[in-house]
Structures are given as structure tokens and as C-alpha cells.
Amino acid sequence: MPGQRLGTTNLKLELKSAARQAVLRADPTEVPRSVLVAVSGPNQFLAGFLGPVGLLLVKTYFLTVTDRSVYVHRGPRTVNLPEELVHVIPRDRAAGLVAGVRLGRSWNALHLRFPGSAKPTRLNVSFHSRPELDDFLKKFPAAPEGGNTPAAGGARRGGVSGA
């Protein structure tokens, strides 16, 4: 039926479309190539346990990769729309963006070094967005540390552990 949500796929497409539109509002000359949707916070299970209060503590992040830059938008979890442009990172300066990643069955932890931040920001990526996460990591690989990569049999990549 028209207008009826068919689950996660339609919501994911709507979120990606909103992120692309936000990039085009910021710079109409950009061409959005890929979008990764993530949420902030230490643990999604803890946020779920807190109920409505947990939703207020969590932000949705939209990482949009274009030919020239990486756009980082965020918005409240209750609305799930990119409301605030946080960073525009030129692709030639985005090499050290990924501080580390921990791949999990339901949630993946992505740690990003944003310009001007003292420590990496943890973003949680759902297993529904794993293909987008893998694509993002191909473009901006995490700094290797001790051979702890999936190819070496580990589930962690980069310099962040214990996340």
C-alpha cells in the first residue's frame, strides 16, 4: 500500500535520502556517493533500557562521502533527520578519520577522529548497515595495529580496544 512502511529497508532509504539532500543544501555542486547512518552513545542496549530518556541521550549521525569530502551531519534520535552539519572533511585529509572499529553481530562500533576533538567519537552502526560500513572502511581504512584485522582472524581493526 502507498505510504506504508515495509520495515527497515524503507526507513534506511529515507535516512540516506535525507542525508544526501542535506549535503546538497550545504553545497549544490557536491555529488553524494555513499551514506552511512550511525548512532552515538556507549551502548545501544543501555539506551534501550533507559527507554524514552535513552532516546534523548542518543544522536543520529549521517556520514556522507562525496567525490571531494566527507560530510558529517547529526540530529536527534527522536526525529532521525540530519539537522546540524558538524564537519566537512576534505577527502585528502580524511585518511586518519577512522581510529578503529569493532565488528559485532548486531552492532558495530566505529571510532572516528573528528577535527578538533581530543579523543575519538564512538558511533554504533547496526548490522542492517554493515554493507555501508564495509564500503566506508574500504575508502577510509582504520589504522592497523598488531595485525588485528578480520583477514588475520580478529574482529577488531584499528587502535581502539575494549569498546
Low-confidence stretches: 1-6, 146-157, 159-163
Strand order of the largest sheet: 4-3-2-1-7-6-5-8
How is the biggest beta sheet arranged? Answer: 8 strands, antiparallel
How many individual β-strands?
8
**Number of helices in the DSSP assignment:** 4
Mean pLDDT across every amino acid position: 80
Percentage beta strand: 25-35%
Structural class: alpha+beta
Helix/strand order, N-terminal first: HEHHEEEEEEHE
Question: What brief labels describe this structure?
Answer:
163 residues, alpha+beta, 8-stranded antiparallel sheet, 4 helices, 32% strand, globular, disordered N terminus, disordered C terminus
Folded structure, characterized:
This protein has 163 residues and is of the alpha+beta class. Helix content is 25%, strand content 32%. It is built from 4 helices and 8 strands, in the order αβααββββββαβ. An 8-stranded antiparallel beta sheet has the order 4-3-2-1-7-6-5-8. A hairpin with an 8-residue loop joins strand 6 and strand 7. The longest helix has 19 residues. The radius of gyration is 16 Å and the shape is globular. The protein starts with 7 loop residues before the first helix and ends in a 5-residue tail after the last strand.
